[in-house]
Amino acid sequence: MFTVRQANDTDYSKIYDLYKKVAEAPVGIARSPEEITEAYIKNFMRHAAETGIELVIDNPDNPSAIIAEIHCHKMEPKIFRHVLSELTIAVDPAFQGKGAGKKIFTHLLAFITSSRPDILRVELFTQPSNERAFAFYKKIGFVPEGMFEKRIPGKNGQLEADIPMAWFNPNYTP
Q1: Under DSSP, is residue 147 helix (H, G, I), strand (E, B) or coil?
Q2: 145 assigned to some structural domain
């Protein structure tokens, strides 16, 4: 049902629209709607194109829209050249729970396994209160690597932890 493809420059406005929509959802991404700017989208698209990966799923019912996007890229300095970080996934709220997120995420990891032997680690962050995401990440092979206490403002006004997680490429070649 869902087809994953490499993102390209012509996807910019569709990705921007997706991120605006997801940022407005109660359980969306870490950024608020006002933080979704042209500069933010262009910046991560440029980084992903230069050193990482960016994938999208087009809306099967509307070719002028994207229902999911995932990206990550290498960090600086060069000592981290084996790491893809800044991983973010956005799934249109109307398509959440329908397999689009799982499809694009597993496609990303399969692509890294088959085509990116230069990458050992893929890193992301989640919060303990986001139980569904935490369980999903663990199910697809991410492992928790500790906890950054009192890092993220939670819904109840309290600061909550951020959990760093990593997935390791079984085909990494140093």
Answers
A1: coil
A2: no
**E-only strand ranges, the chain:** 4-6, 53-59, 62-74, 83-91, 121-126, 143-144, 148-153, 159-168
Alpha carbons 100 and 88: distance in angstroms, whole number: 14
Tracing tokens 């398509």 back to the chain, one arrives at 95
The CA distance from 86 to 102, in Å, is 18
Query: Domain of 100: which CATH number?
Result: 3.40.630.30
Q: Is residue 9 part of a domain?
A: yes
Do 172 and 120 contact (CB within 8 A), yes or no?
Answer: yes
Residue 22, SS3 per DSSP = helix
As for how many domains the chain has, the answer is 1
pLDDT tens per residue, range 101-144: 999 999 999 999 999 999 999 999 998 888 888 999 999 999 99
Model confidence, pTM = 0.94
Domain that holds residue 58: 4-124
